[in-house]
């Protein structure tokens, strides 16, 4: 069916836990509640992965809902936990709290399953304020969970230029504040590094105690080649901000962050996402 020009399909998955590989080898498994992502961020590395390349439709225009996911996950968890500790990254190729989650509630059902049969560690990676809805389940997981909220910039015009369908920056900052106040472990993920202002680090200091900085060259799984094929550089050129596309650009933000965060709260690339 079509929902606001979004093609939505229901799938019956046979399994949900995938072995952690590449950038996510620090995790035993990855978990994706959906296939596809309606945020459709212009720089998303998933655009260059098979799940997107062979779909026959533009990334951001389709979503597959994984029905009965919680029951499948419970079975997968029991099998995996019988072999040893289980650590999960959710999600590696979709946002678990994209707009479809308001109605489908697949991610919430998976959190319910994991709150009952808890993994050793779960990282929830999202850019959506909707994650606040599930604070009750996140609190049940205690220190076995971390919510990582993507905040690539503090400039709303930049956000709109690169990710026009993603939630506003102010709502994400407020989400981090509320989660931290409630006692949910959190971090801000500046991933990728987009052009930002001199106030960026200070605004993050107000809402979070942990930050990870990642860019196209460190974080797209191919040394920046996947991103290069997307021609994201053209957007920087159009905005007159091409200096922010350089491999050294992340240092502009990292050095600013060092003035506000101690070393044990500041991470670069892969180490900041690991359990």
Give a short overview:
The chain is an alpha/beta fold and 275 residues long. The chain has helices at 50-53, 69-81, 100-104, 106-116, 135-141, 156-162, 169-182, 200-205, 216-219, 225-229, 233-239, 250-258, 270-273; strands at residues 2-3, 6-11, 17-19, 29-31, 34-35, 62-66, 87-90, 121-126, 145-150, 186-190, 211-213, 266-268. 35% of the residues lie in helices and 17% in strands.
Radius of gyration: 18 Å
The beta-strand count equals: 12
State the share of residues found in helices, binned by percent: 25-40%
How many DSSP H or I helices? 13
Estimated structural class: alpha/beta
CATH architecture: Alpha-Beta Horseshoe
Q: Quick one: CATH class? A: Alpha Beta
Secondary-structure element sequence?
EEEEEHEHEHHEHEHHEHEHHHHEH
Order of adjacent strands in the largest pleated sheet: 3-4-7-8-9-10-11-12
Structural overview:
With 275 residues, the chain is α/β, with parallel strands linked by helices. The protein has one domain (2-273): Alpha-Beta Horseshoe (pyruvate-formate lyase- activating enzyme). It has helices at 50-53, 69-81, 100-104, 106-116, 135-141, 156-162, 169-182, 200-205, 216-219, 225-229, 233-239, 250-258, 270-273, and strands at 2-3, 6-11, 17-19, 29-31, 34-35, 62-66, 87-90, 121-126, 145-150, 186-190, 211-213, 266-268. It has an eight-stranded mixed sheet with strand order 3-4-7-8-9-10-11-12. A four-stranded mixed sheet has the order 1-2-6-5, with no helix packed on it. Strand 1 (2-3) and strand 2 form a beta hairpin. It is globular, with a radius of gyration of 18 Å. The relative contact order is 0.13. The model has no long low-confidence stretch (mean pLDDT 94).
């Amino acid at each position: 069916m079509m929902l606001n020009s979004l093609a939505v399909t229901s799938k019956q998955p046979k399994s949900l836990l995938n072995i952690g590989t590449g950038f996510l080898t620090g995790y035993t498994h990855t978990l994706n509640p959906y296939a596809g992502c309606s945020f459709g961020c212009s720089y998303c590395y998933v655009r260059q992965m098979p799940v997107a390349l062979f779909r026959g439709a533009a990334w951001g225009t389709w979503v597959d809902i994984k029905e009965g996911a919680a029951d499948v996950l419970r079975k997968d968890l029991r099998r995996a936990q019988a072999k040893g500790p289980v650590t999960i990254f959710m999600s590696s190729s979709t946002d678990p709290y994209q707009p479809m989650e308001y109605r489908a509630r697949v991610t919430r059902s998976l959190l319910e399953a994991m709150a009952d049969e808890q993994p050793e560690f779960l990282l929830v990676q999202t850019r959506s304020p909707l994650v606040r809805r599930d604070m009750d389940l996140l609190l049940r997981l205690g220190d076995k969970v971390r919510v990582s909220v993507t905040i690539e910039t503090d400039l709303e015009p930049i956000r709109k230029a690169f990710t026009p369908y993603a939630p506003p920056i102010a709502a994400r900052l407020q989400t981090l504040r509320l989660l931290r106040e409630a006692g949910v472990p959190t971090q801000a993920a500046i991933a990728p590094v987009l052009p930002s202002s001199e106030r960026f680090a200070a605004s993050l200091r107000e809402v979070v105690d942990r930050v990870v900085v990642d860019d196209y060259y460190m974080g797209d799984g191919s040394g920046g080649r996947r991103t290069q094929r997307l021609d994201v550089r053209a957007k920087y050129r159009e905005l007159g901000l091409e200096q922010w596309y350089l491999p050294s650009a992340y240092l502009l933000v990292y050095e600013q962050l060092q003035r506000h965060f101690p070393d044990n709260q500041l991470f670069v690339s892969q180490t900041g996402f690991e359990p």
